[in-house]
Amino acid sequence: MANRLPLSWPNGEDEDVFDQMPDLPEAKVDCSGVNQRVLASDDHAEDFGDRRSGSTNMTSYASILVAPVERDQDSLPTIVSDSDEEFDKGPEESSQLRNDTVQLRDVLLTLSQRVVDTATTSYINVRRHHIWEDSARILRRKRFDPRSIISVKFADDDGTSEGAVDLGDPRREFLRLLLQASNLQSGVFQGPEDRRVLFANSLAREKDYYRLVGMMIAWSVIHGGPGGNFLSKTLYNALAYGIENVSADPRDLPSSTMQEKIALIENASSLHSLNSALEDESIQSVLVAQGAKPSSSSLEEKGKFVKLITNFLLLDSTRYVFEDFQKGMHTMGLLDCIKEHPRLFEEIFCAQEQPLDANMVDLLFRIEYAEEGTRAREKQERAVVFWRDYLQDCGGIKYLTFEVVNFISVIFIFGIQFY
């Protein structure tokens, strides 16, 4: 029977001349119309799939799985496809993400066509290891215009010009590195790297970094770069819906200690436990700053206390730097489009929990084929077709254990044979 194998898988100090830069008119834009190696190796290709049947005429990857399924049919879970169920439901839910993606691309294309000046060019000379320092200097120049086409040249520390290291063009690489530096080196954010909130930094405000970072983000997005995917939902919602309309999420608090204190209030099961949690010194300081009463008279008030404290820590206490950041995001009319299409833009500004799909898994592997025209090549091509069919089917499988997926994947990747 089957040969069972153990499965195991392996801050720069810059001259402050930002105030010399002329204030650009805020564009009011109408946005309403818008490797791992190998799959089939030479060693296994000749015998792949025809040990049991003595034939190479298999019609699907399921033929390869006959041996293990026959041996222990009852022990394997039932595999149920979602494809028919999705068809009965209609395309609305499954097509929503695709429609949103198209709409976002159209919105950004329309905005870019209206505000980008293709007749002028901004020449960007930067060093990869000093992206924040060099970019801050460039954007502070009096003659800098974010509407101009971006032309980037990287240089090493000795001043030698060089091309982009990655497969994209230098402009896209620069914008990617710029957003990364804005997130990690500007000193205006705190919290997890993919869930950032504003940090009240007096030095950063002196240098006008909050407006500068907002401007960098808008500049990147409108010129075809990334949005960073690092803003917390609380910060993004404040931009998109207005800070006065947002209830901050306690999960966005950068301090795990404060999260625990908020959780004690939220999960209090009696009035005594609620007031005990409110007696904490740091909680009392927030309540005093808000002019709120220091204790509760009803257990039903715990939700109000959670909202009041969380909103103060994440929104009210940083409102003055938020306004600077917001002003930067107004660059070239981006914030107007965000407010008009808040759900669309969320996918480029906030981290998204995106599960692996068939195409993403397929891209993890690089196929090494045998010579064209050989029998081995023919079998390898058939194996690749079966592999990709299997990946597509996994996307619609409702009940399937990790062990089964892992087991079947090993069959394809290593060409395991059954006798």
Query: What structural class should be given to the helix and strand makeup?
Result: mainly alpha
Low-pLDDT parts are: 1-22, 35-55, 66-101, 161-168
What is the overall number of helices? 19
Overall spatial form = globular
CATH architecture of the largest domain, please? Answer: Alpha-Beta Complex
Number of domains: 3
Rg for CA atoms: 28 Å
Instruction: State the order of secondary-structure elements, H for helix, E for strand.
Output: EHHHHEHEEHEEHHHHHHHHHHHEHH
What is the percent of helical residues?
Answer: 40-55%
CATH class of the largest domain: Alpha Beta
CATH superfamily name of the largest domain? Hect, E3 ligase catalytic domains
Largest beta-sheet details: 3 strands, mixed
**How many strand elements?**
7
Average pLDDT value? 76
Proportion of residues in extended strands: 5-15%
Lateral strand order in the biggest sheet:
2-3-4
Walkthrough of the structure:
The chain is globular, with a radius of gyration of 28 Å. The N terminus is likely disordered. The N and C termini lie close together (6 Å). The protein has a three-stranded mixed sheet with strand order 2-3-4, covered by helices on one side. Strands 1-7 form a two-stranded parallel sheet. The protein has 419 residues and is mainly α. The protein folds into three domains: 104 residues, no CATH class; 186 residues, Hect, E3 ligase catalytic domain fold (Alpha-Beta Complex), CATH 3.90.1750; 61 residues, no CATH class. It has 19 helices and seven strands.
